[in-house]
Design a protein that fits this description.
single chain, mainly alpha, Rossmann fold, two-stranded parallel sheet, 9 helices, 9% strand, globular
Length: 172
């Protein structure tokens, strides 16, 4: 779910020489092409329109060229939202899912502190975003994840190190 710590892990793994592809960035790039302000409402609406027009795997389709052009053996894809996106990615390579869990209060706090243009400005917007995410199918990848991390009481370093150890185990 938004604010659980996915991007924190991804950013931390950059320093460990992993290549990161962020699916939210792909939507933000599409918004820029369409001259849309990158607000939470605009990006959420665009994400839904892309899925309605191009199928539930549409956002994953946006990153396929980046994946195919990568020279890295392991890519970290930040922000998978549906089983259909997973299926798109499985056509390109092996997919392992790591879900990050955090309580509603923890996630709201993280998002409030982050300060990105699409972060919710209040609890009402936060709840609307959660409902939208659940509506596009985020519950399925969370439920089907190969591994999960609970991020309610971890430091950033502990969170990143836990994810790193899981990924190392997958590489063996």
């Amino acid at each position: 779910m938004p604010g659980a710590g996915k991007s924190t892990i991804a950013n931390g793994l950059k320093s460990k020489n992993f290549e990161i592809i962020n699916m939210g960035d792909a939507v933000r790039e599409e918004a820029k092409k369409l001259n849309l302000e990158p607000t939470g409402q605009n990006l959420g609406k665009l994400m839904l329109e892309l899925r309605e027009k191009n199928g539930l795997g549409a956002v994953a389709e946006l990153i396929c060229d980046k994946i195919k052009n990568s020279v890295s053996n392991v890519l970290i894809i930040d922000g998978i939202r549906s089983n259909e996106e997973i299926q798109v990615l499985r056509k390109i390579g092996t997919v392992k899912l790591l879900s990050i869990h955090a309580s509603t209060d923890t996630r709201y706090s993280f998002l409030s502190d982050r300060g990105r243009s699409d972060d919710p400005q209040n609890r009402e917007h936060f709840n609307e975003r959660d409902i939208r995410e659940i509506g596009v199918g985020i519950s399925t990848p969370i439920a089907l994840a190969d591994e999960s991390i609970s991020n309610n009481n971890l430091t950033i370093d502990e969170l990143i190190e836990t994810a790193y150890k899981i990924i190392q185990g997958w590489q063996k």
